[in-house]
Each structure stands twice: as C-alpha cells, then as structure tokens.
Design a protein that fits this description.
The complex is a heterodimer. Chain A is α/β, with parallel strands linked by helices. Helices cover 41% and strands 9% of the residues of chain A. In chain A, strand 4, helix 3 and strand 5 form a beta-alpha-beta unit. The radius of gyration of chain A is 24 Å and the shape is globular. The chains are: A alpha/beta, B alpha/beta. Chains A and B meet through helix 1, strand 1, strand 2, helix 2 and helix 12 of A and helix 5, strand 4, helix 8 and helix 9 of B.
Chain lengths: 418, 252
C-alpha cells in the first residue's frame, strides 16, 4: 500500500463519515469459528474522541462521490470538496490490520451514491463478503442499506453484515422533501421493510435448525438529524416510536445538526449544535425502550417539547405527582422504574434485596440510588421522609438547586467557538 | 479479636475461612504477610495455605452460591485492595451460615461491598479489553503492555483467546511483572527478564515494516473522526483517564 495516498483517503473518507453517529458494536452474537479472526458478541468502545464520543468501529465511506444534492450533507454533489474512493481491497486491509491491533470492533461502511443504488450497494456487499469468506473474519460489520437497492443485494448484505441501517435523516417526509429533493421517503423505507421480514424469517429458521445462517443478528437502526428542520420533539419521538413498532428497529439515533454548509433552507452556520436537546431525546428514547414508558406519556400535543432544564423522567414525575410517593419495599418493579433517581440496575437490586429484609435510605444509597432525586417520590423503612406536600414545581426547584447540569458549562463554550 | 495472617492468595483466603470454622472463631481480622507485629491483647494465628482445605471451603461455597457468585468472589479477590479481604471473609461467612443463597441481599453490608468491588474489577477488565493496543513484531506475533489498577490479567484470557485465535499474541503486565502468551493453541503465564528501561526500545526495534504505517493511519483516523464543534474534554478524560494514555497508540 502507498502509505501517503492511503492516509489522504482515510482522512477524507473518515471525516465525511463521522456525522453518522451510530457506533454500536453490541447486540450481535457472532462467534469465532474455525480458528478465524474475531468475534462480535460484546460491544466495546476502544477509544473516545475529544468530543467524548465512542470509537468502536472503523467508520468510513467507500467514496464521497455522490449524485445526490442533500442540503444537510457535507458530501452533496454541489459542495466543492476533495473527493476520494477506496478500493474494496484497501478497506479490507485496513479493517483486518486495525482489528488485529485491537483498535476496533469491526467496520461501519457507508458510501455516497455513485452511478446508482445497486452499483453502490454491490460494492459495499463485496467488502463484507470478502472479509467473511476470504479472511475468515467474524468481527462486527455494519453496512449502510442504500435506498433503492434490490432485494437480492439486501439479502446478501444481511448474510454477511451484523447490522444494517438506512438513515431517515429527517423525522418527517415533509422535512426530507425540503432538504433532500432527490431522495424519496418510500425508497428509504422499502429496504427496511424487506430486511424486517427477512430477519423475522431467519430467526424462525434459526429456532428450527441450529446450523441456519445468521442474518443481520444485530438488527437494523436508523438516524434522524434534529434541529435542521422545524419538527418538534413530539413529532420526532412519535416517528421514532412508529419505526420501533413497525420495523422492529434496535435503535434510532438522534444527531444534533452540526452546521457545515451555507444554505437558506438550513440554520445559519453560526448556530450552536443542539446538544442538550439531543441528550433529552436520547433520555426519552431510553424511557421508551427500557423503562416501560409509552411515548405519549413523555410528549404529546399538550407537551410537544421536552424540558431542557430537567430530564424527561423527572418531568413526567412532577406532572404526575398523584402517582407518588411509592413504598420501595412494596411497589411493583414497573413503578419503581418510574422513580427519578432510580435506574434499571438499582431497580432490579431493590426488588431482589427486599426479599431479605426491608430497605432503608442507607441501603438504597449503597445500591446506587440517587437519593437527592428519589427522596421526593419514595418512602422506605425509615421515619424520615418528605412530609411537606410539595408541588411538582417546588420539587423541580429543589432538585435544580442541588444539582448542576453537565451541559450548563458547555453551552457558553459552544457559543465562544464562533 | 483474633488476627489471622495468610499469604494473600485465593487458596490462602479459603483456608483462612476453614480455620475460622475449625477454631470456632467469632471476631476475626485478616492480615496479609508472614510476620505480624503483635498488639498486646490480640490473639494471633498463622494460616498455612492448604489446597485440600481450600477445596473443601470452595465446595461448600459452590453449594451456597451460584456459579456466577463464586466467579464474582474470585474477581473481587483479584482487586487486591488492602483491608477488603475482611469484607470477602464476611461475605463468605454470611453465605455459608445462611440457609438460602444471599447473593442478592444488597441490604447486607458485605454483599453490597463485594458487589461494589466486583464492579470496579469488571470495569478495569473491560477497559483492558478496550485499551490494549497490540504492536506487530517481525516474527508475526503481537505484543501489548499494560499497567492495570487491579490484577485483571487472568480475567482477560478468555476474551482474547476467543477473539484472536489465529495469531500469536502476548499481553504483559508491567506493574506486576508477568504476562500471558498465546501460541495458537493455548495460553500460558510467563515472566520476562529484562531491564525495564530498554524494553520499549527493543519492542520498537522489533516492529514489522508496516507497523509504523498502521499506527500512523490509526492516529490519523482518530483525529479525523473528531468533531471540533462538539469538543468536550471533561467527558473525554472521564472515558479515558490519563493514566491509560501512555499505552494508547492514539494518545502518545
């Protein structure tokens, strides 16, 4: 390999791929077979960038040549930037050599669209196929499904990749029309629907025949850009919920729009990245997936926006003070999960530990419960508990006064940069 | 109060538990090491590590705890935090004295402390799985040096053996001066004799010809994926504490 040329390509094509936020490498169950290289069973973040994001996969574009002209995208056709393209062999060599040095968990390969959808998808599939068949590689592979690619190619992609994803980009069809006139909402959804059915079918087969091949064992995910178009949190989370329910997605990623291009349809270049809002959306997403909340309990037409100063769980609790306080020694796991300051792990610990004896504040604290928050919403084996009949708003003020958001300091820095 | 001194090994710890029951001791403190400076009113006993007695204690622990529970106990022992062996002893006595499995009794101070220690050890193990950086040598083998907070090397074997089954590799704990070596079939513990100061230079001299190129490519990649407008140094350092930087290719 020509080191200088490869370095240059890697810089261009890694830089262009970094706005894809997904870096998950967990959720698969691929084992190492026949003394080959690698496995993909546990997600590991091998490094963290200076912006604090995890680096788990070699995340690159095959090429940043693109026939589309999407306003939010740095690789759009009309943007005057350096273009480059990897050969299939170059991507394979980089992946294997990075993997052997324990730099990465695997490959996340995306691409600009060159010529047409099938032509592009075929190249992506060829990389995965080569890694699996010629190099006996069992590490994690995440391929981008190219909207409009044929079912045959999607099927082949599923056989070699652990995860596949289509980026919806805009939470609603109208938003997509505005910013990506060349893209068609239906084209994006079609491969998703095909893969959903294929995954269900392969899972059934796997139950019957142990030797049946894996098919995208880590499922599908998608990404929406937030803050580039005027959708509110209600629309965003309801559309995420729709895709979780109807397409069995494993994850929806929310990417705060980073202003990279000057365009009258987009926020101006000096707008700051909506990091707090992005964080609140992820918190809400977690409540939907792991805490048993229904999306309309978090946002609805009366509450179309997530609170920026407090997290959505606390926000729900103070809107529903009639549900509290609950007794941690008696309440259902379902209800304990809804208490601000108690996470999934501590909730499970509480339910296990209370079989042995009643729990007090000290016990809860040692189990990892954040007492500062939880104390307004629970009682336990103790004479001390919140006796005042506080309003939701008063609780919010108390909690805000005793804690500080990790983002407060960040916001001014964001503004100073420009 | 009786003070039991033992050799610091896991078998020694289990033998100590045996002695606690054999001598019907109630109020016990553990101490690592041979010789004990006597305090006036303490009774002192020295535990002689005995494989058979250790095995008997382990057997009864296996009856009272799940397989995972026994593994967690071993992981907590590997933390080697001074004074914590008293909590491990308390945990084992509580387990043996109870009729039912007490692993999930997080209201008990020993159980909750063991779960805290296990969490610390597991985190360090996970960090090593992430932060180990292999360097390829001329003979085709891969070498990595580590300096973990806890003695997690024994816990790493399974992960690296199943992942890198088709290459020879060695992971060396510079702080505890031993390593594991995988020869394509099995792993073994090894110690290397060398003057510490020259070691890194020796390793660099033994690189394959493309090792520098891949290190350079990785550093470049690491820089390219950063989004400057989202810089968050506090979060960065929380994820990769500075003490790990000297063995991380991208942070050197």
């Amino acid at each position: 390999m020509d080191a200088d040329r490869i370095t240059e390509k890697l810089n261009i094509l890694a830089d262009a791929a970094k706005y894809d936020v997904s870096c998950a490498s967990s959720g698969s169950k691929r084992k190492n077979e026949n003394k080959g290289l690698g496995n993909a069973s546990n997600g590991i973040c091998h490094s963290y960038t200076e912006d604090g994001r995890c680096v788990s996969l070699l995340k690159i574009l095959l090429t940043n040549h693109c026939i589309f002209d999407c306003a939010y995208c740095i690789s759009r056709k009309s943007n005057d930037i350096q273009r480059a393209a990897f050969t299939v062999q170059e991507v394979v060599d980089l992946t294997i050599n990075f993997y052997r040095r324990n730099y990465i968990e695997g490959l996340f390969l995306s691409s600009g669209i060159f010529k047409d959808a099938d032509f592009t998808m075929e190249r992506l599939v060829r990389v995965a196929k080569k890694l699996r068949l010629e190099h006996n590689f069992h590490g994690y592979i995440h391929l981008k499904s190219i909207p409009g690619a044929s079912d045959e190619l999607m099927n082949e992609a599923g056989l070699y990749a652990d995860r596949l994803s289509v980026n919806l980009e805009m939470p609603t069809e109208a938003g997509l029309k505005l910013l990506a006139p060349d893209k068609n909402h239906q084209d994006m959804i079609k491969p998703m629907g095909y893969l959903k059915n294929a995954i269900i079918q392969h899972t059934e087969e796997k139950k019957l025949f142990k030797k049946a091949p894996l098919f995208a064992p880590a499922g599908q995910s998608t990404q929406v850009i937030i803050g580039a178009t005027p959708e509110d949190d209600n629309q965003i989370l309801h559309s995420a919920n729709y895709f979780y329910k109807n397409f069995k997605l494993r994850r929806v990623y929310y990417s705060g729009y980073v202003p990279v291009l000057e365009d009258s349809r987009l926020p101006a270049l000096n707008t700051s990245v909506p990091m707090v809002r992005e964080n609140r959306l992820y918190q809400a997403d977690w409540l939907m997936r792991n805490y048993g909340f229904h999306v309309s309990e978090i946002v609805n037409n009366q509450q179309p926006h997530l609170d920026l100063d407090i997290d959505p769980k606390l926000s729900w609790a103070i809107r529903n003070m009639n549900e509290f306080p609950i007794d941690v020694n008696r309440a259902d796991l379902k209800m304990i999960l809804r208490v601000p300051g108690i996470g999934v792990l501590s909730a499970q610990k509480i339910v296990s530990a209370r079989k042995f004896g009643k729990l007090n504040w000290e016990n809860l604290k040692r189990m990892g419960v954040c007492i500062n928050r939880a104390k307004y919403f629970v009682t336990c084996q103790s004479k001390e508990f919140e006796r005042r009949d506080l309003t939701g708003n008063a609780i919010k003020q108390f909690i805000l006064a005793t804690s500080h958001s990790k983002y407060i300091k960040n916001v001014p820095t964001q503004l100073n940069l420009f | 109060m009786t003070t039991l001194s033992y050799d610091g090994t896991f078998e020694g710890l289990l033998t100590a538990v045996f002695d606690v029951y054999a001598h019907k001791l109630c109020n016990v403190k553990l101490h690592q090491g041979e010789y004990l400076e006597g305090t006036l009113f303490d009774e002192k006993l020295h535990v002689v590590t005995d494989q058979a007695r250790a095995a008997r204690v382990l057997k009864s622990l296996k009856l009272k705890l799940s397989t995972l529970g026994v593994q967690r106990l071993y992981a907590a022992h590997l933390a080697e935090i001074s004074g914590e062996d008293n909590n491990l002893l308390g945990f084992m006595r509580y387990a043996i004295d109870s009729a039912e499995n007490i692993e999930e009794d997080y209201g008990n101070k020993y159980v909750v402390r063991v779960s805290e220690i296990v969490r610390m050890v597991r985190r360090e193990k996970h960090r090593m799985e992430a932060f180990i950086r292999f360097q390829k040598l001329r003979d085709g083998s891969f070498y990595a040096a580590i300096e973990p907070d806890f003695n997690v090397l024994p816990l790493l074997i399974k992960h690296f053996k199943s992942r890198y089954a088709d290459m020879k590799w060695m992971i060396y704990d510079l702080r505890r001066k031993y390593g594991i070596y995988y020869d394509l079939h099995d792993t073994q513990f090894i110690t290397l004799d060398f003057a510490d100061s020259n070691r890194q230079a020796d390793i660099v001299a033994a690189y394959t010809e493309d090792e520098d190129m891949y290190q350079h490519l990785w550093k470049n990649y690491f820089k390219s994926v950063n989004i400057a407008s989202r810089k968050n140094t506090k979060l960065h350092v929380r994820h990769i504490p500075k003490r790990y930087w000297k063995h991380l290719t991208e942070k050197i």
